[in-house]
Design goal:
- The chain has 149 residues and is mainly alpha-helical.
- Helices cover 65% and strands 0% of the residues.
- α3 packs across α4 and α4 packs across α5.
- The N and C termini lie far apart (98 Å).
């Protein structure tokens, strides 16, 4: 009986040491404490992410999300006659057509953000505000109306 009691005490002691080591940040009793996470000044990580996105050539909107959006808009705008089963078939697009729509939508979004940022700089600020986006949208609508007529 003494042997099992001693084994239980040893086990409890090891468990307590592991808990204390985990609280300090070590992964095992014999390990050194884990390094503290680096603290950056505010804005440093945001600037790093902005630079990363500026260097990348990835899509602004993911392809699958854009495909779903295009399909949803097409179903709303282009009603089709029901087939023999009584179901309305989905509008189909060629991959090249979806890619062309995506590219043009992204170029419009980028142009809109660039215009809005010009308004921000004109106000003497650096942070893009919603009123700048609204003003840029109004200008773009006026320009498109002028081009249509």
């Amino acid at each position: 009986m003494a042997r099992t009691k001693q084994a239980a005490l040893v086990k409890a002691l090891k468990k307590r040491q592991q808990n204390e080591a985990a609280a300090k940040g070590a992964t095992d009793v014999n390990d050194k404490p884990a390094r503290k996470k680096t603290k950056f000044k505010w804005g440093t990580v945001a600037l790093r992410e902005i630079k990363k996105h500026q260097r990348s050539v990835d899509n602004i909107v993911p392809r699958a999300a854009m495909r779903r959006l295009i399909s949803e808009l097409a179903q709303q705008e282009v009603p089709k006659a029901p087939n023999s089963n009584g179901e309305t078939p989905a509008t189909r697009f060629a991959p090249e057509a979806i890619e062309a729509i995506r590219a043009s939508a992204e170029s419009v979004m980028i142009e809109h953000i660039e215009r809005a940022y010009k308004y921000t700089l004109n106000r003497g600020k650096e942070t893009l505000a919603s009123r700048d986006m609204q003003a840029a949208a109004g200008d773009m609508l006026k320009e498109w109306a002028r081009l249509r007529s």
